[in-house]
Amino acid sequence: MTLIAFGINHKTAPLELREKIAFSADSTVSALASFSSSTGAQDAMIVSTCNRTEIYAQVDTADKQQVVQWLAQFHGLSPTELMENCYHHEELDAVVHIMRVASGLDSLMLGEPQILGQVKQAYSDARNSGVINGGFERLFQHTFAVAKRVRNETEIGANAISVAYASVQLAKHIFSSLDKSRVLLIGAGETIELVAKHLAEHKVKSLTVANRTLARAELIAKPLGASVLTLAQIPQHLKDADIVISSTASQLPILGKGLVESALKERRHKPMFLVDLAVPRDIEPEVAQLNDAYLYTVDDLQQIVEKNLANRQDAAQQADQMIQQQAQQYLQWQQSQSAIDLLKHFRDQSALQRDLLTARALNQLADGKEPATVLTELANKLTNSLIHAPTKALKKAAHEQDESSLALLQEALGIEIKQHPPEH
C-alpha cells in the first residue's frame, strides 16, 4: 500500500474552483465510501476547508489520474481543470505534507491554529465512517502530537499577523486583563467581525457594535451576546469605552478630537485605547495629542504584522526541521511494523506446516507403523519444508551473482562456512 496526499489549495487554485470541489459535512460520509469503493483505498480521509480540499489515503497503486477522475466525477467537473491545479505527494513527502498542514505551515495565514481542529474533525469523521484502520490511527495520532509540539516549542503562533488580531494583542499589552474592559467597535465589515470574534475569545467585560444600520450590526453582535448602537448614539456612549476599534467606509472621520476629549473628561481621564483600521481614517489624527488617548492607525499595526510575520517565518523553519525528523521517525516505525508482520506470518506459516506433519505422524503411529520410520520421515519432511524457501532464495542470489543478498541470507540463516587449509 502507498500513502498519498492529494489536493488543491489557495496556492494552486482560484476560489471559484475551490468552491466547486469543497465537501460539506453532509456529503463527506458518502464521498469517503465512494472513494474507498472506487480506488480500493484501505484508509481514507478528506479535509475540506475554504482554502483547501485534500484527500489522504492508503492505496494499492498511487495513481494521480485515478484520484482526479474520481474527484471530477463526484463533483461533475472536468478532470483536465483539476489536473492543472492539483498536487500529489507520496510516502515521506505525503507524511511531511500532512504534518505541515496540521501544524499551520501550509495555511494562508502562516501558523494559524484553526486548521489543526479541522484536521482532527476530518479524522474523526473518517473514523466514524469506518474508513480509518491501524495505519492511519498511528499516522494521525503522531501528526497531532507533532502539531502540538510545533505550537509549544516554536514561536509559530506567538505573534499577530493580521491587523484584526494585532489590534487585540496590542490592547492586551496596554490593559493587563481584557476581562475588565468595555469595548466599542465601529463598523460592521469583515475586519470588525474578525476583531469581535478575537475579543469574545478574551471574554471582555462588554462589547458594543456601532454601525450606520443596526441590522448589519446585529449580525455581528447577536452571536457574541454584544449590544448595538447607531453611529448617532456614539457621542453619549463613548465615555463608557475603554477600547475603541473602528473600521468603516466613511469618507469623513467618525470620531473627532473634541468628541474624544469630552469623553475623556467624563471618564475623569481614565485612559482610552483607540485603533483606527479605516482608510480614509475614522479617527482624527489629532486625537493622539490628548494625554489619556492612545491612538494607533492601520500603518502602525501593519509594521507590527510585518515584523511578526518575519518572526513566524523563522519559527516555520524550525518547525519544518522538526517535521522532517518526525516524518522519518514515523516511516521507520511503519517499516519496522512491516518487518514484524512479515516475521509473524513466517512463524505462523512454519507452525502450520509443523502441525500438519505432526498430525500425519501421529496418525501413522496410531495405525501401527514403526516409530523409528515415522520419526525419520517426520524429520525429513519437516527439514525439507523449512529449507525449501531459503534454498530457492540462495539459488536465485547465486545465479544472479547478488553478493549482498547472499551475505544477508548467510547471516539470517546462521550459515558458517569454514575455510579448509590448502592441501600440500
Word description of this protein:
The protein is of the alpha/beta class. The chain folds into 3 domains: 2-153, 2-Layer Sandwich (Beta Polymerase, domain 2), CATH 3.30.460; 163-306, Rossmann fold, CATH 3.40.50; 344-413, no CATH class. It contains 15 helices and 10 strands. The chain has helices spanning 15-20, 25-39, 64-75, 79-85, 91-102, 114-128, 134-153, 163-174, 190-201, 214-224, 234-237, 257-266, 298-366, 371-399, 403-413; strands spanning 2-9, 43-48, 52-59, 87-90, 182-186, 206-211, 227-230, 243-246, 272-276, 293-297. The strands form 2 sheets. A 6-stranded parallel β-sheet has the order 7-6-5-8-9-10. Strands 2-3-1-4 form a 4-stranded antiparallel β-sheet, with helices on both faces. β5 (182-186), α9 (190-201) and β6 (206-211) form a beta-alpha-beta unit. α5 (91-102) crosses α13 (298-366) and α7 (134-153) packs antiparallel against α13 (298-366). The longest helix has 69 residues, at 298-366. It starts with a strand and ends in an 11-residue tail after the last helix. The mean pLDDT is 87.
